[in-house]
Amino acid sequence: MKHVYSKGNQYAERDIEALGNYYMVHIDAMTVESLYSKSSVAAELAFRDKRIAQLETQWISVEDRLPGFHEYVLSYHPVMNVTLLGSFIQGSHRFRDVMSNSFYKSDISHWMPLPSPPKEAQR
Q: What is the pTM of this model?
């Protein structure tokens, strides 16, 4: 694994009072979970950074990949600035929303899979 270090400080001094309860929740959790060493804290921060990156990159460009045939997805129409629920009809190269409106692939910029149902609904 290659580490890339930037010059200068990566972490700024923070105003703890301005962070309010967010700061105390983390201090309490780190104390309860015995995260006292720098490496333990760094591992937790890395895990959270990775999770945030995963959540931020759920949108997939139609230029990179298209959804599966008749797979229900969320799609984004940038001109209308709207997110649509529907599926991709591969033979016609169109997206069709649940109201049977049809959009050319070129009208849609991004799509994402639907999230999993809540755990309590999966019983």
A: 0.53
